[in-house]
Amino acid sequence: MLSEHTRQQVSATAAWVLCASIAMLFAGLTSAMVVRRNMAGDWEGVPLPPLIWVNTSLLIISSLVLHVGWRRSAWILGVAFLTGQAFVWRDLPAAQPGDWFLWVFSLLHAAHTIGGIIALIWAREAAARIYWHFLTGLWIYLMFLFAIWGQA
User: Fold this and answer.
1) pTM of the model
2) DSSP 46
3) Residue 78 in contact with residue 62, Cβ under 8 Å?
4) Orientation of helix 71-91 relative to helix 50-67, angle to 10°
C-alpha cells in the first residue's frame, strides 16, 4: 500500500504531464495563429470585450485563494469564470480569422477549466493546485497573445 505522501507525488507528476500535453496543444495552436495572421492580408484586430478582463480577474483571484488554501472558493470562482465566459461568447463575433482563433482558444480553455473544477473538487491537493495554477497561467498567456499579437 502506498503512503499518502507517495500518492501525492504520483498525482503531482501526473498533473505535470497533463499540463505539458496541454501546453503542447496550445503551442501548436499559437503557431497556427501566427502563421495564419501573416499568411494573408485579411487579419483584423481581435476585439476583446471588457467582460473578458473581469473573467481574467476572477481566474487570477481563484488561483490566489487556492494558494492560501481555500479550495472550495477557488472552484466557485472557476464556475463564475465560465459563466462570465458564456456571456462573452454570446457577444463574440465570428467574422474574421482572428475571431475564430479566439473562439477556439477560449472554448478549449473552458473545457480544460471544467476539468480543473472537477480536479479541485475530487483530486488530490497537489495535483489540483498544479493544474489550476497552470490553467490560470495559460489564460494569462492567451490574453496577452490576443491583446498584443491578435491586434492588426
Assistant:
1) 0.94
2) P
3) yes
4) 170
Longest dimension (CA), the chain: 61
- In total, the chain counts a number of residues equal to 152
Which domain range does residue 111 map to? Answer: 4-149
- Contact between residue 75 and residue 117 where contact means Cβ atoms under 8 Å apart: yes
d(CA 90, CA 143): 18
How far, in Å, are 9, 68, 69, 121, 125 from residue 5 at the CA level? Answer: 6, 20, 18, 19, 11
68 phi and psi angles, rounded to 5 deg: -90, 0
- Cβ atoms 52, 139 nearer than 8 A: no
Q: From CA 60, how far away is CA 66, in angstroms rounded?
A: 10
Q: What is the mean pLDDT of residues 44-72?
A: 95
- Alpha carbon distance 61, 141 (integer Å): 16
Cell of 56: 481574467
Cell numbers found for residue 29: 495552436
Task: Please count the structural domains in the chain.
Answer: 1
For residue 151, what pLDDT band results from cuts at 50, 70 and 90? Answer: confident
CATH number at residue 36: 1.20.120.80
